[in-house]
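Researcher: We plan to redesign the surface later, but first we want a full-length starting point. Tokens attached.
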């Protein structure tokens, strides 16, 4: 089913943190592997079992230091096993599937939580942006400004900094085939965060059905078209240089 997680005071991140906290408190998962902000401002995945620690969780941050699929794979095959919720971007979800094929991961005790990806910066670039000395740089890395691009699909980074090359050419930026999905594309994230999840999980969390407004697919199509164009231009440039 599909529901809408309410957002108060335009604080989208707090709403996402609250939903993840519900998963732990309701016993749907025993722990969460989720990107966490460190005291120094870095964002790195960590395994969290204490709901109060999720105040530092930030799965929406536009940075990707490691592919969390590798960590999820290790967690999924260790003994004794817990029921672990793993928060993953679309590319990490795809990587996890490949690790399962190689018998380096197991889906048996994982709850996959997919998050649409609006694009990520390299770690040094993200750190430099956060420490930028002028207001324009600080605003360009602001989470609200970044999330606002989800509604229209206009994902072009602001300022002189650019997304990682892989993100600029990514043709599958939307989360697919996850147990739980944060559907960011096409949504006004200042008012609510659309989430799709299994019926039994929604019943446990006492969530109501909210019908989709149909904007998600159109925005995704526009994003894929734009990124495919970038990919083709990059490949054409590479062929020209090789020739």
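Model: Full-length starting sequence:
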């Amino acid at each position: 089913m599909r529901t809408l997680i309410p957002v108060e005071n335009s604080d989208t991140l707090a709403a996402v943190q609250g939903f993840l906290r519900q998963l732990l408190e309701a016993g749907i998962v025993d722990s969460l592997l989720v990107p966490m902000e460190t005291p120094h401002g870095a964002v790195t995945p960590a395994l969290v079992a204490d709901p109060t620690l999720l105040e530092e969780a930030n799965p929406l941050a536009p940075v990707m230091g490691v592919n969390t699929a590798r960590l999820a794979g290790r967690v999924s095959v260790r003994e004794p096993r817990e029921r672990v919720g793993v928060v993953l971007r679309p590319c990490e979800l795809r990587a996890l599937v490949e690790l399962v094929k190689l018998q380096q991961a197991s889906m048996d005790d994982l709850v996959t939580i997919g998050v649409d990806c609006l694009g990520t910066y390299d770690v040094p670039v993200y750190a430099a942006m956060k420490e930028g000395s002028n207001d324009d740089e600080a605003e360009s890395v602001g989470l609200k400004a970044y999330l606002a691009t989800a509604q229209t699909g206009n994902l072009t980074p602001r300022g002189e900094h650019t997304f990682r090359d892989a993100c600029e050419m990514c043709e599958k930026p939307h989360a697919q085939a996850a147990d739980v999905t944060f559907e960011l594309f096409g949504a006004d994230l200042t008012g609510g965060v659309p989430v799709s999840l299994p019926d039994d999980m929604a019943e446990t969390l006492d969530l109501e059905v909210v019908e989709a407004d149909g904007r998600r697919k159109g925005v995704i199509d526009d994003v894929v078209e734009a990124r495919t164009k970038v990919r083709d231009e990059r490949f054409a440039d590479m062929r020209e240089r090789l020739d």
